[in-house]
Amino acid sequence: MKQKQDDNKILAQRYARDIKTANVWSVFKIIADFVHGFDELGELGPSVTIFGSARTDKENAYYKKAVLLGDMLGSAGFNVITGGGPGIMEAANKGAFNNPSIESIGLNIDLPLEQSINPYTTKARTFEYFFSRKVMLVKYSIAYVLFPGGFGTLDELFEALTLVQTQKIRGVRIFVVGTEFFQPLMDFMRNTLLAQGMIDEKDLDIITLTDDLYHIADQIKASLGVQMKVLEDAGLRDTDYYHSLADFFENRDIVHGKDSYDT
Questions:
Q1: What is the per-residue pLDDT across 190-244, written as a single tens digit (0 to 9) for each?
Q2: Is the residue at 131 inside a domain?
Q3: Please, where are the H alpha helices in the chain?
Q4: Is residue 262 part of a domain?
Q5: Which of 13, 97, 204, 246 could cross-link 120 (Cys pair, CB 3.0–4.6 Å)?
């Protein structure tokens, strides 16, 4: 215990030095975060990122739902990306891990309060900085699914919403699981943000709030063609990423509505 506390203290001090001083060498660590992420994730093919609390235990209903959704997406051929930690992240990786034909990916963060990578990943990477990790969590996914969580999960939700609202990303679907948990937040968005002109009515349509995992999986599959059209319009038809989506689209029964889930 004492050793862990000392290690956490040293790590916290290192972060303070990086952030509060003009240490130009930290730029190379930032670059390394991005280089490793681009190199390992750039040719994955269709992937879905699942966010949620690290504090959710195995008996929690949302943990069990995340396992099921990870398995459903994996069986449909989608790679599953999480933050690599315990709780909801572990659950989604655990479900995906049942499907050897896809990658179950954990993108961990080096924290003063240690967060270990869960054992259900086939690809794992630990990042120095939240912002570089967050880029990798959203960059290569065609959809984001958010389960209940705390400050980190809410940060990821609003980051995703902002990217879609400002059209920095296009064609990506955002699903929020936990109608009871998230309904007060949705009410705040409508009754306060929208009512006071802080957002537009169409901004609320960015979010799909549902507990129906089958609906989420079906909608993600249906959105693949939209993603490909976005890439075509951006002149990216000759990229490796486009070809990986096209190969997936052409070679699976989802094009003809024949895909099913083994659950």
A1: 999 999 999 999 999 999 999 999 999 999 998 888 888 888 988 988 887 888 8
A2: yes
A3: 2-20, 26-41, 61-75, 88-97, 130-139, 151-165, 179-188, 201-204, 213-222, 224-233, 240-251
A4: no
A5: 97
Altogether, the residues listed in the chain come to a count of: 263
In a domain, 263, yes or no: no
Q: C-alpha distances in angstroms, 239 versus 43, 235, 263? A: 10, 9, 34
Distance CA 216, CA 91 (A): 17
Domain of 139, in residue numbers: 2-256
pTM of the model: 0.84
**Does 240 fall in a domain?**
yes
User: What's the structural domain count of the chain?
Assistant: 1
Q: The domain that contains 127 carries what CATH number? A: 3.40.50.450
Q: How far apart are alpha carbons 150 and 162 in whole angstroms?
A: 18
Q: Number of helices and strands (H, E) in the chain?
A: 11, 7
